[in-house]
Amino acid sequence: MKKLLLAAVAALTATAALAEYPEKPVTIVVPFAAGGPTDKVARDLAEALRKPLGATIIIENVGGAGGTLGHTKVAKAANDGYTLLLAHIGMSTAPALYRNLQYKTLDDFEYLGMVNEVPMTLIGRSTLPANNFAELVKWMEANKGKINLANAGLGAASHLCGLLFQQSMKVDMTTVPYKGTGPAMTDLLGGQVDLMCDQTTNTTGQIESGKVKAFAVTTTKRLSTPALAKLPTLEESGVKGFNVTIWHGMYAPKGTPKPVLDKVNAALKVALKDPDFIKRQEALGAVVITDNRTNGADHKKFVEAEINKWGPIIKAAGQYAD
């Protein structure tokens, strides 16, 4: 009888605590340095989340190892709802890229929902003789073994897009990894490398200024952004099935109580409809998610499909990090 009474008291106490969540600031871990695209998304989202969640939100940048250090920190954090993760497509590519992960992507997190998708563009140095995708294909065929493809480093969006592009085109290129998008773009502008596939957040300004040549977008539909609206998709250009976006999602440590997850998910859905948040994301070239992937279970299914998509591509390329 005493044990039953203690269990009942404990259950009531836990219920009361959950009802009062959040009682203190909530930390969102960003697995990259401050100032980058993911950090920007997180800070914009934090602003939109504060009111519906009813909490002060702190952004903590935990960079390193392609984002996996930040992922690990949250996977091992207390599962009380006060430590969350905002991560990008790296959640789905890390299992293939890193052999010694300290967490399991599908088992060690609670999935809260997807936030946005960022399109990508295929661009080239301004001195390339090709002026459209058809001409680019002819140029690539005539220059097999001589083409340099830049990326921002192992696991970066540009690296993943480049891998898929090479596989789809069946053209071997010399992959040139850099320590970030900045140096990669600098060499592309200087003509030291030929091509790069990167997020609109990094390429739109260069395209608008005419400093690079743009050949296509990686989405299944053309973009509405004025500077990119005339660019064809790779799909319509003949590269069937090509669809790459850099998405962001939110996660909590495994075992976080369902009432807490429900509160955070409800607040997330409100935040994703915030006009200011939508406007800020559109300025980055990002599309805010409005479909069922804002639900935790549906986002998890999406991530699992992404793992199955990228795993074979990465393994076929033989590009790993220990």
Automatic annotation (TrEMBL):
Keywords: Signal
Superkingdom, natural source: Bacteria
InterPro entries: BUG, Bug_dom1
Signal peptide: 1-19
Stated family: Belongs to the UPF0065 (bug) family.
PANTHER family documented for this protein: BLR1237 PROTEIN, TRICARBOXYLATE-BINDING PROTEIN
Official protein name in the record: Putative exported protein
Organism: Piscinibacter sakaiensis (Ideonella sakaiensis)
